[in-house]
Amino acid sequence: MRYIFYLVIGISLFAMALLSPAKFDGGLYVSHAKQIYSGEMPVLAVSGTKPNLIPSIIAINYRIFGVNGFSEQIVAPAFYLLALILLVGNLRLKISEENAIIAGFLFLTMILPFYHARNVYTDMPLAVCVMIGGIYLMRFWEEKKHQFLAYSIIAMLLASQIKASGMILMWIYLLVIVIRGAICKLNSYRN
Amino acid sequence: MQIEFIQKLIQMIQDFNPNWGHKIMIPCINALIIKDFFLFVFLILIRLFLYSDFQFLWYLFFATLILCRKEIYSTELKWMYLFVSLGMIQVFFVMASDTYFPFLVDGTCINRFVMHICFIAFYVVALVLGNIDQPDRKKNI
User: Fold this and answer.
1) With an 8 Å Cβ cutoff, are B123 and A87 in contact?
2) Are A10 and A81 spatial neighbours (Cβ–Cβ below 8 Å)?
3) Inter-chain contact B119–A130, Cβ cutoff 8 Å?
4) A94 and A151 fall within a common domain
5) Which of A48, A59, A113, A114 is the most exposed place for a label (fewest CB within 10 A)?
6) Is residue A165 domain-shared with residue A104, that is, in the same domain?
7) Do both A83 and A156 map to the same domain?
8) C-alpha angle A127/A130/A136, rounded to 5°?
9) Structure confidence at residue B7 (pLDDT)
10) Residues A133 and A78 in one domain
11) For residue range A166-176, what is the model confidence (pLDDT) as tens digits?
12) ipTM of the assembly?
C-alpha cells in the first residue's frame, strides 16, 4: 500500500512539474534546440559558454513528440524521476527498504529539486549526472566491477557537456580519484 | 499582534520564491528595528531551514561529518565527502569571476553552485544515517 502512495506522490509531482512553464533561461536553450532541429547548428557544439547536450535532447524530443512545449519541459522532470529511482534503488541495496523509502519521501519534499525540475532546463540533469557519477564511483570502489566505473565516467562526461560548472565538477571528480589513488599507493608502500 | 502575524505569514506564503533568500535579510533587520523579535526569529528560521541556498541538508551534512566521523573515515564515504566539500569550494573561485558577479549581487550565486552537488550530498548523508540506524547489519560501504 505504501508503495502505491509513494508512486502517486511521485507521479503527481512529475505532472505538476510538467504543467507550469519554464521561467528562466529556457528561451536560449529552446532557440538552440530549434536551430539544431532545423540543421543550422551542429549537435553537441559549444555555443558561447553553453554546451549543447540539453538542446540536443530537446531536438530529439522534437523529432519524437513534435515541436511543442511538452518536448521542452519533459527533460528536467524525467531526470527528476530518474534521480528518485536511482536514489531509492541504491539505498534499498545499501541499507534497508524502510530507510530507502524515507529517503525517497525526503527527496520528494525537498523544495530545491522540485523547483528546478519545474523551472530550469539544465540544473536538474547536471545534478543527476553528478549523483550517478558519485554513486557508481563508490560502488566501483566497493564491489570492484568495472562496469560501474564506466557508468560513472560516462555520467561525469555528460555532466561536463550540460553546463560549464559541470566541467569544474568533472575536474574535482578526477582530483578526488587521483588523491585516493595516491594515498592508497602510499599506504601499500608503507605496509 | 496575532492577526498581523498571520497576515504577514499569508503574504509571505503567497510571495514565496526559493530564490529570494537574499531579500529576507531586509525584513529581518526591519523586524529588529521595530523590536518584533517573534517575527525576527521566524524569519531567521525560514532563512536557515527553508531557502534553497543553504537548507537543512547542509547542516545535516556538516553535523554527520563531525559527529559520525568514525563511520565516515573508516569507509569509502570519506572520498565522497571530499568530493562534495571541494564542490562547495568552487563557489569561492566563481565569485572572483566577472561573469558570475550579477548572481552574487542578486543573491543566487551560492544556490546555483551548491544545488549541483546536493543530490550526491543527500545520498551520502542517507547512507551514513542508514548505517548508524542499523548497526548490526553488515556495512556495505
Assistant:
1) yes
2) yes
3) yes
4) no
5) A48
6) no
7) no
8) 135
9) 67
10) no
11) 888 899 999 99
12) 0.85
A110/B122 touch (CB, cutoff 8 Å), yes or no: yes
Indicate whether this model's pTM tops 0.90: no
* A180/B122 Cβ within 8 A: no
A72, A87, A120 — which closes off a domain? A120
b/e map A146-166, b = 16+ CB within 10 Å: eebbebbbebbebbbbbbebb
Instruction: Examine the domain organization and report whether A147 and A92 are in the same domain.
Output: no
Q: How far is B48 from chain A (nearest CA, A)?
A: 14
Give the structural domain span for A91: 1-120
Q: A-chain residues within 8 Å CB-CB of B77?
A: 138
A109 part of contact set with chain B, CB < 8 Å: no
The verdict on A116 and A133 lying in the same domain is no
Interface test with B, best of A158, A172, A177 (most B CBs within 10 A): A172
> What are the backbone dihedrals phi and psi of residue B125, each rounded to the nearest 5 degrees, phi first?
-65, -40
Taking chain B (141 residues) in runs of 10, the rounded mean pLDDT of each run is 66 55 60 75 67 67 89 88 88 69 64 80 89 66 51
